[in-house]
Design goal:
The chain is α/β, with parallel strands linked by helices. Helices cover about 40% and strands about 15% of the residues. The chain is built from 8 helices and 5 strands; from the N terminus they run ααβαβααβαβαβα. The chain is globular.
Length: about 170
C-alpha cells in the first residue's frame, strides 16, 4: 500500500481496525509526537509491530505537540511527520489526534495491543485500562540508548548555532 493511503482520519482507522480484527489479525497501537524521526523511533516501531499483525500509530497534531513540548515544537509539521511514518514498512496506518493524550482515540479504535516505551509503567500508560478491560495486552519496549528527538535538536544547535557556523552544508 502506498504511504499516502496509510494516513487516515479516525473514522477510517476505526473501520480498518474492525476489518482486520474480523480477519483475526492482531492490531497494535502506539502513539507519539515523532517530531524528528531517528533510529530509536524506527527500532521502537519495528518492535511494536512484532507484537501483532498490524501497526497503527496515533500522532499528536501540531497543536498538541506545541502544548506538550513547548513553543518551539514541533520542528516538523504534522503532515510531514505522518508522511514519514507512513513510509515505514512496519506501519499499516497513521492517524492524528488533537488531545494531549490518546485516550479518546484508543477507546475509539479498540486495539488488541497497546505499546509504549519502557519509561512508562503499565499502570501509568494512558488507555491501558481500556485495552486490558477488553482482554487486550499492554506492552512496553526499551528505547535505543542515546537516541531522542531532544538529543538530535541539541546536536544541531551545538553544531550550527553555538559554533558560529551559519552556512548550509546541504544534505
Amino acid at each position: 500500500m502506498s504511504s499516502d493511503k496509510k494516513i487516515v482520519k479516525q473514522t477510517e482507522a476505526a473501520a480498518r481496525i474492525e476489518k482486520w480484527q474480523q480477519e483475526q489479525l492482531k492490531v497494535v497501537f502506539t502513539n507519539g509526537c515523532f517530531d524528528i524521526l531517528h533510529a530509536g523511533h524506527v527500532q521502537y516501531l519495528e518492535q511494536a509491530r512484532e507484537a501483532g499483525d498490524r501497526l497503527v500509530i496515533g500522532v499528536n497534531t501540531d497543536a498538541s505537540v506545541h502544548r506538550l513540548k513547548g513553543e518551539k515544537r514541533p520542528v516538523c509539521s504534522e503532515t510531514d511527520r505522518c508522511r514519514v511514518l507512513a513510509a515505514l514498512g512496519s506501519v499499516d496506518a497513521v492517524v492524528m489526534f488533537d488531545e494531549d493524550t490518546p485516550l479518546k482515540l484508543i477507546e475509539r479504535l479498540q486495539p488488541d495491543v497497546l505499546v509504549k516505551g519502557a519509561d512508562w509503567s503499565v499502570d501509568t500508560i494512558v488507555g491501558a485500562d481500556s485495552v486490558l478491560a477488553r482482554g487486550g495486552e499492554v506492552k512496553t519496549i526499551k528505547f535505543l540508548e542515546g537516541r531522542s528527538t531532544t538529543g538530535v535538536i541539541e546536536r544541531i544547535i551545538e553544531a550550527y548555532c553555538r559554533s558560529g557556523r551559519t552556512e548550509d552544508g546541504g544534505d
